[in-house]
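Schema walkthrough. Field components (list of strings):
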Amino acid sequence: MLRLRTLLLLLPLLAPTAMADSRQPTHSYTLDNGLNVIIREDHRAPVVVSQVWYKVGGVDEPPGQTGLSHALEHMMFKGSEHLEPGQASRLLSSLGASENAMTNRDYTAYYQMLSRDQLPVALEMEAERMHLLTLPEDEFLKEIEVIKEERRMRVDDNPNGVAYERFLAQAYTASPYAQPVIGWMHDLDRMQIEDLRAWYKSHYVPGNATLVIVGDVYPETVKPLVERYFGAVPAGPLPVVRKPLELPVIGERSLTQHLDLQLPSLLLGFNVPSLNTVSEPWEAHALRLLDAVLDGGYSARLPSHLERGDAIATSVGTGYDAFTRGDSLFVFSGIPNEARDIDLPTLEAAIWKEIDAIKQTPPSAEELARVQAQVVAGLVYAQDNIMQQANRIGELVTVGLPWQLVDNDIEALQAVTPEQVSEVARRYLVRERLTRSYNLPNAREEQQP
Amino acid sequence: MSQSKPFSVLRWLIALAALGGMLFLLMERAPDSQPASDTPAVAQAPDDGPADTATEVFGSPLPALSSLEELDLDTPPARRGLDLQHWQTRQGTPVYFMHAGELPMLDIQLLYAAGASRDGELPGLAMFTNAMLNEGTGSLDAGDIAAGFERLGAQFGNSSHRDMGLISLRTLTAADKLDPALTLFAQILSKPSFPAASLERIREQLLAGLRYARQRPGAQASEALWSTLYPGHPYGIPPDGSEDSLKAISRDDLQRFQQTYYSAGNAVIALVGDIDRARAEQLAQHLADAMPQGPAAEPTPPAEKIAASSQHIDFASSQTHVLVAQQGMSRTDPDYAALYLGNQILGGSGFGSRLVEEVREKRGLSYSVGSNFSAMQAPGPFVISLQTRSDQAEQALEVVNQTLDRFISEGPTDAEVNRAKQQLLGEFPLSTASNSAIVAQLAAIGFYNLPLNHMQLFLDRVQALTATDIREAFARHLPASERVVITVGPPQPPAEPEDNADQPSAAAEQEPSA
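Field assembly_structure (string):
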């Protein structure tokens, strides 16, 4: 998701005057039991999105128990006090509602999108499973097999998935972001229902959660509903939410992976701070601009110079997520253009040339204006999709940042100077922070860095 | 998080090779459901809904939830009022329009009968042409075009499918953004220049894309499915092309394809956004004038029926991909509503559907399982797909065949039909929640020649259906004598005598595994 998210995070470069028109009424408050509630109005269609976000994800799992959060997410559909396993899904489906859940390194989230008249059903079911989940062992024994199939499909039979999983395991050393969210297969093999019961008990309390509602609702009618269903959930002891921190300087790491690939690929990851861990926030904003100047569109530097231009890469791009709970990565990825006999070292050298260029010469006014125009427009486009708005708000709050950033961290981005973009490249895109992975097709000649 | 770094679909496809792995950072409980092209299109709200009681819809016993007891199921969910409009340009290009004034933006979608089914002797030609459209026009090269849109905050999109080629633009409607974005857009429609440097680069990327597909068992299975179901038919042509054809395609071929198929007579224009009717008419005419002038392409004819078969493709993976498929229905089939509703019950609506219950929920055999009708211009495929650990593939196939056989012979229950009807009524408002969803549906209405009130007619038909209607429609369209099974995974072990009880159904036995 790194790539998809990046530009979206750049949205708020908009001028403050234009903002006033586009921002939708948003209401934020906390229930007595600690549940954080954010309601955003969008009255274009009689539809609403309801989401509950928990501050628990892969990053919280102890070694040997990877995959717990994701497995618990699956088990959240396997019954609660008044609902049989799978019954809530069948009921919601009968109403025409769409629902799903997602687990990430930093969070676990559940959502329903449905007609506004049906919102109480979603709220009641979600509130019930916040504290009255059944977690039956027979259902777990079946579901863990589904999860293993999911792992096989996403990772084990997908050489890009394997390559990236192992790359992350090298790129992070002190930080638990090294662990795969879906869990190592050997941890899935030894997972027990008791582990999930303990995980549920310690992390699923209202004070560790945020309810986000976006759509055709008004606070005066929704607040009583929220109080009625979620107010009944008892407050519990709050788990400690820790920021995953990385060592300041680790040293250059390099790995070569031989996989069932058809096309070789390259990953270069640099350990960088996120907005949550950075000591000077402008650095994170400058890294966001650096990402956009390099790969924020088909006219950005990497596609212009390396895909077109010299035709060194079949594909090349960058990704940086500033909105994580802990320290982040700035990643370059690419596929060399083998039709022109480009190998991985040549592609890497070309990427370093681009890095060195931006270290020495700040981006032009034209480049930054282009980034800004996309960000300004993107803010308007994002309002076309209530699910996207809810995701953005929920994610910000859950990683420990204010939801208001969805509308206004413009000033912070506008305050970044072109010289500061070069400065973060000089500070962070250095070999002591680098993890390099050469991913090579099996049974082909090895290419040494 | 649907917004992505705006770049061409082709580039995205290739980028997945490097970045696909990143996706598993975020996992969803269930895979995405059906492709958007198969969702029914929009229309006005009906006056009333079915008088279903909670028990009919939800089954019994009903869980003790107060919100369910208080839910008024006899009143259909509230709907967005949609003022859909339709006219033709002077050339006869159909235009579909909805004014949406809430956001200062405009979505334009152009659909052409310019998909891979028009490739003829040069597989990949349609996709190659589509990918070249924004690579040069007049004196502008690919970088100039990209920078031109990006400095306005406009998003250009293009993609190629079996029936259609698609070009889209999303832009702000402030005059200083809209006017230059439209000028550039029209230039692309009018005279793409197919510059030599781009041509070779895109050719290399498409060839790389072919290689990338070889590392994906799902792509292997899909290719085998289409070529098996549609031998000698336009739908059997691989849209990504072949190595030979991609190397053979010339600039003249691309130019000829663009002139023939990206013409005003072969286009549908859909517009949704913050412009008024007069501006929409002027804008649509301007776009149609910019296109090459030419007639509509002949509709794709139905394919010849094919006999049941079974084939296995060896692939070094831990899972086996299983596809059970046959020719299904066209978008204008009289049985469209019955098959659509029946498929919801069989495996098209995720949890609660029979296939998900039997394969995933009861047996834990697969993460992703479902069924789908691709309703296309000519009858497209009906496909059931799943992936499972290889030693379970035979068992999973058996469950699928039994579930399908039983559904065809016995049909759904009345309770299932009532539930599915309620489901479709409830889903409808969701399909109109965004401009992007509406513009896609308007374009599909135009492309498949459906009436403007198509959704209303569809919902009316659905509400009138009985379990018998569905059973008969499935029996008519899905005879077991035409069922094809494709498996991709590790080599299959030779059949053991004691495995007889687990043999796949009759349909899969007609030919030995390849």
